[in-house]
Amino acid sequence: MKKIVIIGSSGAGKSTLARELGSILKMKVFHLDRYFWQRGWKRETRDTRMDILQDFVREKQWIIEGSYLSSSELHLHEADTIIFLDIPPLLCLWRLTKRHLAYRRRSRRDIPEGSTDKLTMSHILKVVTFPLEDRRTIKQKLRNYKSKQIIWLRSRKEVEDFLAQQKQDGDEKNPRVIAGEAYERMRLRPTLLTATLR
């Protein structure tokens, strides 16, 4: 794994996983929320976002986290590994609320410099409706990348197991598709992506 994309709903744990995985693999991490917005949450233009992504993917190794699906083709295409955090929406919403209370008047390293944590009604609705809209879009996109290693994690336990495996195995090759609790079993018997996406 040298070029990794992490996608999923807000509150799924993308930023946390990216930081932890980056520490294990000694790789640079790019948080798209930090680069796709200006101070005060002013949106960058699509052209600017694409230029930013072009700069990121030129690196030899990277981890890019963020589910900007309308701008995702470039880094998904360049990635050798795609990690989908398919976390239940109510858990994501709980995490977002908890994080907002903790950082309401403070900045974080995964959001625009000079900005503070933001939680709006539209943000909440996007999380709640994620399984009906963005999740379907992600599944469709993943069907186009069968040649890549796709890692599908559905709970914090599965994320912890995955990170523990990375620490243990180092650079050991993993199966093309890793699906949650079946991780250990599938190390010996890879499963086709098309079957996983049904």
CATH superfamily: P-loop containing nucleotide triphosphate hydrolases
Largest sheet: 6 strands, parallel
The percent range for strand residues is 15-25%
The total of helices stands at: 10
Helical fraction: 40-55%
Tell me the structural class.
Answer: alpha/beta
CATH T-level topology = Rossmann fold
The residue-averaged pLDDT reads 84
| Terminal Cα span | 26 Å
- The geometry reads as globular
Which strand order spans the largest sheet, edge to edge or round the barrel? 2-5-1-6-7-8
Number of strands: 8
What is the total domain count? Answer: 1
| Rg result | 16 Å
The string of secondary-structure elements, in order, is EHEHEEHEHEHHHEHEHH
Which CATH architecture would you pick? 3-Layer(aba) Sandwich
Poorly predicted runs of 5 or more residues? 181-198
Supply the CATH class: Alpha Beta
Oligomer: single chain
Note down, in words, how this protein is organized.
By secondary structure, the chain is of the alpha/beta class. The protein has one domain (3-196): Rossmann fold. Helices cover 45% and strands 15% of the residues. It is built from ten helices and eight strands. The chain has a six-stranded parallel beta sheet, with helices on both faces. Strands 3-4 form a two-stranded antiparallel ribbon. The protein starts with a strand and ends with a helix. The model is unreliable at 181-198 (pLDDT under 50).
